Each structure stands twice: as C-alpha cells, then as structure tokens.
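Continued from yesterday's entry.
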Amino acid sequence: GRLFGLLEDWRTELDLVRDALVRHLKFWISETGIDGFRYDAVRHVELDFWRTCVPEIRRYASAVGKSGFRQFGEHSAPDSETVGEVSKGAGFDGMVAYPLYYRVRELIQGQDGAWEDLRNEIEQGCFRYRDSRENLVFLENHDVDRLLGLLHDMPGDHAQESAIALL
C-alpha cells in the first residue's frame, strides 16, 4: 500500500519486515550509543507491531547496558483517550503530548471553555497513558502551527514577546 498516496508502506504485518526493522533499531543502538527513540507517526503502524518491537528493543538495550533507554511514540490525535490507548497498548515509555498541546492552543486562541478543558487534560488525561510523567510536552514543532502564527491577532504588537514567554 501507500501512505498518504505517495509513500511506500512497510508491510509490518509480515514477520520478515518486523524482524528487519527491529534489527535496524538494534543496529543504531549498538553503533551510536543513543539513549532512546522517538518513533514518528506510530498510528500509521499497527499496534501489534509496537507490542512486539517496544519490549524487544527495551530488552536489547538493557542487555547492552542501557537500562534507562527510553522509547516515545508520536500520535497526533487531539484526545488523550486515543493517544493513551496506543501508549498503554504498545508499552511506550511516553508519548509526544499532542492532547495537551491542543488544549494550550485552544487557550491561546481564546476558545470558550479552554481553561476548563486544559484543567481536565492535566487532571484527568494523565490517567489514560501508560505513564504521563514521561510524555514529551511541547508548544510548537515542525508539524503544527507556530506560536507567532497563533498569536498574530493579539492586541498591540505583543505576539513575539508572548511567544517567547510561552516557550
């Protein structure tokens, strides 16, 4: 198949492909001494692959002396229930905190109920993850609108100062 209609899709449902990908991940650990992986777009790979990959990489990393090796998944859904299901199902150490990002963005944009939604995400959303204390929090990255773009309609000329303060 094709991802987004233009990128060839890895057939991760096949053992041959799974084994090759896991071998490559192990190669990068052994060759570089890295301390973790951030897996991009994990929603585009079936959960069963991650259920195999994540514990095997954790086992391997520990065997080569990297007991603190971390594995983070990136799933851009706006709700912690969806992202949390992947977090728990795959066993990632943490996730890229997209649901929290979306609540902060709604607050910046002045949406009704944004403070309440942000509070609920902080107080309740954390229980949907394997361990939300490990989530990677961000306010902007290469996949989302930049803060200056979100703040451009602020009264006066304070968008840049506000973006710096938020970051």
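--- second protein ---
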Amino acid sequence: PPTSPWPGFSSRATMINLSTRGTVGGSQGVLIGGFVVSGITPKRVLIRAAGPSLGAFAVSNPLRDPAFTVFDSSQNVVGSNDNWGDAPDVAGLLAASAQSGAFLFPANSLDAAALLTLDPGSYTVVVGSVDGSEGTALVEAYEVPQ
C-alpha cells in the first residue's frame, strides 16, 4: 500500500469529523460547509447543526434555532433537518452520535441533526436560522462506522 509522508498518518485513514463555526442569520445569512464522500460505496454520515447546545461550551450568542439542508453536486436536496428531536429515527441519531464521538444534544434542544447514507461525491451543507435570529452555529459532518 502507499505510504504517507507524515509520520503516524495512515494512507488508509478515513474522515472522522469535519466542522466549522460561524455567524448565521441577520446580515451574515447562512453558514456553508462542504465535504466529499470518497470510495466506491455509500457511507453513513451524521450531519449536525448545533446552535442552542453551544451555550454549554461557553460560546457567546449561540444561534437559537438552526436548520440545515444537504445538497449533492447537482444541487439536489439529499437531506435536511430542523429540530433533531423531531427526526424519524432519534434512537439512530443518538447511537450515531455516540459511535462517532459527537457530543450529545440535550433532549429538547432546537439543534438539528440527520443520519444519511450518501453515495460517493461532493456535498454542501447550508445552515440557516429558522426564526431569523442571528447567532453562532457549528456545522458538523461525521463518518459513522458501519
């Protein structure tokens, strides 16, 4: 197999987590994150938009009510969520969060999350403010082990 020029880095490594934080709403608009699913088989990916739960991490002015939409490279919507607790598979979201090392959202929070099975390709996550407020949000993508 190919070797890596960086000590301790495996050329067979997989993405564990990709995240970015920024201001959403008001004059700032939306927060956009992108990622690529590599390989030849679909992968399970946990997508999250944290807002209210960021207050527990001393983030000032967390976004009150984030929602997100995931687009593929052809701009087709492949997933979305507003309020993770309203998702069709809350137990699956909790298991995927624990399995991937994501911090747990409080039970009744307005944070957003979805567990998607995505084909190889490029994806964009767009996070917006449901209620029009402005605040700090965190968008995350986790590869969930199968």
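The CA atoms of residues 68 and 127 lie 4 Å apart. The chain has a mean pLDDT of 89. Will compare against the first tomorrow.
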